[in-house]
């Protein structure tokens, strides 16, 4: 029988039970809609020279101690943002119990009775404040379906009321998002200083204004070599703060090799998004990354994106004036985040940077 990807995707979607539903049904084989092209998982294995490479870890403990200590942190942030696009932060001010409770809350929601989860099921952010589904680009993407389910909502500037949030993770999401906004404020200051600009420049451009939280659940996979947890992509954000559990699977593309982002207990992973690469005129890099599927699980992660995404936002962004000159002219045309995001979501996570479409 001929394989009809659309029909199979639709049938999967209509269960409203996501990948968790497949695992609960005790499947032993991964359905074809999840299969990645053969060979795509074995490409770009780290060579011996890069296998011991790790993304930078930055200790924020001394950032408010004195000028010299702060400048030393800013220097590390600059190096990480320019050369890696990714770094982990420790002593970031978010209490460990808040991190643990957030992960537990996400797990509780995704392991709820399916009937409870279905009340949040949607593919339309205009209709619901809190959206649960599997693969935002299920129908748009040409690539295979990813082995994960997600719950998403904007936690700033206009968060849901507590009653609109699922009971399983309500308190955790409210508490954790407060801390992420506070950490984001500090990170945008450090990144502004790393550009050699006044510390409030990125905040004054509303980079901190909107926070989209996406809570992922990657169930254990019976055939992890056939599929991906998340396909290769760069982020539709200024900055992303990622909380991941200890299972691992996140990899970034660095020097044309896939490098593991090994979980570090109590740390948060920070990465530069496409909009920050655009407004810094390529000084900071938004790097492609992916998540492997795993026999272990479930893997829990919470990605907090500083980005207004598809929300109405008339602000026009282009390379920051202070960063361009005759020797270094603007590399991108001016855009709105909504225009960028519409194309990004239409394209789905299929591995090429959407930024290329806006280059001058």
From TrEMBL:
The keyword Transmembrane does not apply. Its cofactor is Fe cation. Residues 209-308 form the Fe2OG dioxygenase domain. Keywords: Iron, Metal-binding, Oxidoreductase. InterPro entries: DIOX_N (IPR026992), IPNS-like_FE2OG_OXY (IPR044861), IPNS-like_sf (IPR027443), Oxoglu/Fe-dep_dioxygenase_dom (IPR005123). GO terms for molecular function: dioxygenase activity; metal ion binding. The keyword Iron applies. Belongs to the iron/ascorbate-dependent oxidoreductase family. This is Fe2OG dioxygenase domain-containing protein. It comes from Arabis nemorensis.
């Amino acid at each position: 029988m001929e394989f009809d990807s659309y029909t199979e995707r639709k049938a999967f979607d209509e269960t409203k039970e996501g990948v968790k539903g497949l695992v609960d049904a005790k499947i032993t084989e991964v359905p074809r809609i999840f299969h990645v092209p053969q060979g795509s998982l074995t490409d770009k294995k780290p060579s011996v020279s890069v296998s011991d490479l790790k993304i930078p870890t930055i200790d924020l403990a001394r950032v408010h101690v004195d000028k010299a200590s702060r400048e030393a942190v800013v220097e590390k942030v600059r190096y990480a943002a320019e050369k890696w696009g990714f770094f982990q932060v420790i002593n970031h001010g978010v209490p460990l119990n808040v991190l643990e409770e957030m992960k537990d809350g996400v797990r509780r929601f995704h392991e709820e009775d399916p009937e409870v989860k279905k009340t949040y099921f949607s593919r339309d952010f205009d209709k619901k404040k809190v959206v649960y589904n599997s693969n935002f680009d299920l129908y748009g993407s040409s690539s295979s379906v990813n082995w994960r389910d997600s719950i998403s909502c904007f936690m700033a500037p206009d968060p849901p009321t507590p009653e609109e949030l699922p009971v399983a993770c309500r308190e955790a999401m409210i508490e954790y998002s407060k801390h992420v906004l506070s950490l984001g404020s500090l990170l945008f200051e450090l990144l502004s200083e790393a550009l050699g600009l006044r510390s409030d420049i990125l905040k004054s451009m509303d980079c901190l204004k909107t926070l989209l939280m996406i809570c992922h659940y990657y169930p254990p996979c019976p055939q992890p070599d056939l599929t991906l947890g998340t396909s290769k992509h760069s982020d539709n954000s200024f900055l992303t703060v990622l909380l991941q559990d200890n299972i691992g699977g996140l990899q970034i593309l660095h020097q044309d090799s896939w490098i593991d982002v090994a979980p570090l207990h109590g740390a948060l992973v920070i990465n530069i998004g496409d909009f920050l690469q655009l407004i810094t005129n390529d000084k900071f890099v938004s790097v492609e990354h992916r998540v492997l599927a795993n026999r272990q699980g479930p893997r829990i992660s919470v990605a907090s994106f500083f980005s207004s995404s598809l929300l109405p936002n008339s602000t026009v962004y282009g390379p920051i004036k202070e960063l361009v000159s005759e020797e270094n002219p603007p590399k991108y045309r001016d855009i709105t985040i909504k225009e960028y995001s519409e194309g990004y979501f239409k394209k789905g996570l299929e591995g090429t940077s959407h930024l290329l479409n806006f280059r001058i």
